[in-house]
Amino acid sequence: LRLPAIKRRLVHDAAAPPVVLSPHFDDAVLDCFALLSAAAPVRVVNVFAAPPRQRCLTDWDHTCGATDSVEWTERRRAEDGEALALLGRASADLPFRQASVRELENERPPSLRALERAVALAVGSAGEVHAPAGIGGHADHELVRDLALRLARRGFPVRLHADLPYAVRGGWPSWIGGDGPSAADDDWRRFLRDVPGLEPERGHVIVLSEEQAEAKVRTLRLYRTQFEQLDGEERLLSRPGALAYEVSWRVGPEAAEEAPPSRR
Ligand SMILES: [Zn+2]
């Protein structure tokens, strides 16, 4: 079967809605709540959304309380559907397995070409692409970021988002939170070093109102299999102010238009 060329590549169409590339079932809501809770149309693509081929148990799923990662993946899909529905959104789920499962099943990561082909089949076109920046170094987040960078090189407007909650393990960077030096300053620099043209401290900062932050944490609590573990002892999601910001960087053709940053 030969697919027509148009289906193998994502098409940039300025009139098409933006597409959020979410590596896992919860990343779109974690990183892009402001975008998803706004009125404008937006599409969500869950990239690593396939269950394991056979019954198994990944370390992360075990930590979260699972006994079988196949069943757990379906639970996660259902939770995500519920959370997105609350925001009036639905997702397209791609048939790739996440890194922890690939490791157990000795499977190589998909190529960027294969990822793009699947995204193209799912949504056809995008006006703009949103993806994680890769802060925290999760292999799946980096793959999706690299796909976004590839699209940026082809002329797509792309926005990379700080990966929550990994990005705030050391608190918010000092240039955002303002409470003096923060471990996040170095963390963000280190993880973003390899992203061409991205200056960590020139990110676009969205300040969520208290009401928005409360709505965000309420939505995140719908991810019942994940919330407690992501929140952790440090309460990365539920402590006051934890969800006060969402930070992103423009890469691609319109990147230059964003200077000066909205907040420093
Ligand atoms: Zn993720």
The residue fraction in helices comes out at 25-40%
Task: Compute the average pLDDT.
Answer: 93
The separation of the N and C termini measures 52 Å
Please tally the β strands and state the result. Answer: 9
* Rg value: 18 Å
Q: Provide a count of the helices.
A: 12
In short:
The chain has 264 residues and is an alpha/beta fold.
Account of the 3D structure:
By secondary structure, the protein is α/β, with parallel strands linked by helices. The protein has twelve helices and nine strands. The strands form two sheets. A seven-stranded mixed sheet has the order 4-3-2-6-7-9-8. Strands 1-5 form a two-stranded parallel sheet. Helix 7 (112-123) crosses helix 8. The longest helix is centred in the first third of the chain and has 18 residues, at 69-86. The structure holds zinc ion. Residues 23-24, 27, 138, 141 line the site of zinc ion.
Strand and helix layout:
Blueprint: H1 5-8, E1 11-12, E2 19-22, H2 27-31, H3 33-37, E3 43-46, H4 59-64, H5 69-86, E4 91-93, H6 99-104, H7 112-123, E5 125-126, E6 129-132, H8 139-153, E7 158-161, H9 174-177, H10 183-192, E8 204-207, H11 210-220, H12 227-231, E9 245-251
Helix pairs in contact: 7-8
The structure holds zinc ion (ZN).
